[in-house]
Design a protein that fits this description.
mainly beta; OB fold (Dihydrolipoamide Acetyltransferase, E2P); five-stranded mixed barrel; about 280 residues; five-stranded antiparallel sheet; 4 domains; single chain
Length: about 280
């Protein structure tokens, strides 16, 4: 018997803390906490073998939701710097997604509650690893987008990050791509989010944007500027001739967006400019 096997074993005898099972040569413990249904009076029981937290071969009646042959969505339960993230595979012990299968920057690693589409690998020593699906495997989930999705919103999960952008699969299986110019910050791998369709492509995939529509962005940007000014008693050392890099660093918006929002506030008679500063009207 070895970790990762799904076996039917005979019940050898009952103990205070569970049952000992055997294949005729080796005995293994099925702890009370790993029993999912009444097995009193049975001669055999179907179990999955794993290595418990004390490094002992053990049996469980729980079945992992993924395997070496079966990919599936698993939830992230913890992230450990320098090691990777742990995912719930349906057992009392979690599986590790190692750093080699994660982005190089931990800031975009999955967080608790995020989801990854993975398979399960169990070593001869019983260590459990989950490996995210390659593109050819996750593509089996893809469905084609219809032209009617243009300007509609899609909710889905980020499943791949590359230098040129982020890939998302929607709840309905539509593949979407988010270019860096269509976001303010890079999404996490495994993050669930809602994005707007800005192009439906001939191959059935879509291009997505995480930026608000211009009319909505104007309102959001203007509110951000006002909020910042109010933390400074209604004044800021920025105006429509400020350096673009200074604006980007302070507000995380382009100079064009900043000028539009500032112009909007001036038209509403909420602010005025003077000698390189902007002031809120009282």
């Amino acid at each position: 018997m070895k970790p990762g096997q799904q076996l039917t074993l005979k019940i050898d005898h009952k103990a205070d803390y569970g049952y000992f099972l055997t294949d005729g040569e080796t005995a293994v413990l099925l702890h009370q906490s790993e029993i999912t249904e009444d097995i009193e009076g049975r001669e055999e029981v179907d179990v999955f073998l794993y290595v418990d937290h004390e490094d002992r071969l053990a049996a469980t009646m729980r079945k992992p939701i993924i395997s070496a042959e079966q990919y599936g969505w698993v939830e992230v339960v913890d992230a450990v710097s320098g090691m990777g993230v742990f995912v719930d595979v349906g057992l009392s012990k979690d599986a590790l997604v190692a750093t080699e299968h994660l982005p190089p920057y931990e800031s975009v690693w999955p967080q608790k509650g995020d989801r990854l589409y993975c398979m399960l690998k169990i070593t001869g020593h019983g260590r459990m690893f989950a490996k995210p699906a390659p593109e050819d495997k996750i593509s089996e989930l893809f469905t084609e987008a219809s032209p009617g999705l243009m300007n509609k919103e899609l909710t889905g999960t980020i499943y791949r990050l590359i230098a040129s952008g982020s890939f998302m699969i929607s709840e309905a299986g539509i593949r979407g791509f988010i270019h860096p110019s269509e976001r303010k910050e890079e999404p996490r791998l495994g993050e669930n989010l809602t994005a707007r369709v800005i192009k439906v492509k001939d191959d059935g995939s879509v291009n997505l944007s995480l930026l608000p529509r211009k009319q909505d962005a104007l309102s959001v940007d203007a509110e951000q500027i006002l909020t910042y000014m109010r933390t400074r008693n209604g004044a800021m050392p920025f105006w429509d001739k400020s350096d673009p890099e200074d604006i980007k660093e302070r507000f995380n918006m382009s100079k064009a967006a900043f000028k539009r929002a500032l112009g909007h506030l001036m038209k509403q008679d909420k602010v005025y400019q003077e000698e390189g500063w902007t002031y809120e009207k009282k």
